[in-house]
Amino acid sequence: MVCATGLLATAAIVVLGGLAKDVVLTVDGERRQLRSFAASVGELLADQDVTYGDGDLVRPAAREPLGDGVHVEVRHARPITLTVDGRTSQRLVTATTVRDALAELDLSALDGRLSARRYEPVPLSGMALTIYTRRTVQIIAGGTRREVTTTGRTVRQVLRRAGVDYEPGSLISPPLSAFPADGEVITVLPPRTLPVGTEVKALDWDALARCLSGGDPTAYNPSGPYYGLYQFSLPMWQLVGGTGMPHAWPPDEQTYRAQLLYQRISGAWESQWPSCGAHLFG
Question: Which residues pair with 33 in a beta bridge?
Answer without folding.
Answer: 24
